[in-house]
Amino acid sequence: MAEPWQPLLDWWFGSADTPDEIAADKGKLWFGKGHDRQAQERFGDQVEQALAGGLVDWAQRPEGWLALVLLLDQLPRMIYRDTPKSFSGDLRAQALVAQGLAAGFDRQLKSIQRVFIYLVLEHCENLAVQNEAVSRFIDLVREQPEAQRAVFEDNLDYAERHQRIIARFGRFPHRNGVLGRESTAEEVAFLKEPGSKF
C-alpha cells in the first residue's frame, strides 16, 4: 500500500532518473504558472490540512517530511499565488526543515529532492537563514559528479541572488505589494530592475 504522500512526490518529481532529466521534465511545474489549478484540484485538501497544522505524522520519515514541506512551501505559492496566503505555510515549513535537518533527513533524500528542502531556507526573510541556504547549496553542488552539477549550480545562483537581496533590504521587496507592505524609495527603484522579482 502506497504511503499517503507518494502521489504528491510522484507528481512533483516524476519518474525520470537523473537530476537533469527530472528538472527538464518538471521545471515548468516547479517554476511556471501553468499548473496552479491542477495543484488545487489534486492537493488542495492536503495543503489546507498542512496549513492547519495537520499531517504531523508525515514528518516522521524523510519522504513524508519532504512532502509535508512541499505542501507548506511550494504548493501554497501555486494555489494562492499573488495573495498573502501564498506565504502562510512558511513559518511551519521553516520549523519543520530545521527539525529535519537536525535529524539528517535531507541526507536520506535524492539530491534533486534536497533542493526543495533548501528552498525553504531561501524563501526566509532572515540573513542568517539565507546564509545557511547558500551553504547548503554549495555543499550540494560539491557532492555531485561533474557532469550533473549544472542544475545544482543554477539553484546555487538563485540562492546567492536571494541572499544578496536580504542582505541589502532585510526582506524581499517583490512581496511588498502582496503583503500590504509599503516599499521604500530604494525598493521601488530596485523593483524596476530586471531580475528583481522571483
Automatic annotation (TrEMBL):
Pfam families linked: DUF924 (PF06041)
> Which InterPro entries does the UniProt entry name for this protein?
DUF924 (IPR010323), TPR-like_helical_dom_sf (IPR011990)
Which domain of life, per UniProt? Bacteria
Q: In its UniProt entry, what is this protein called?
A: DUF924 domain-containing protein
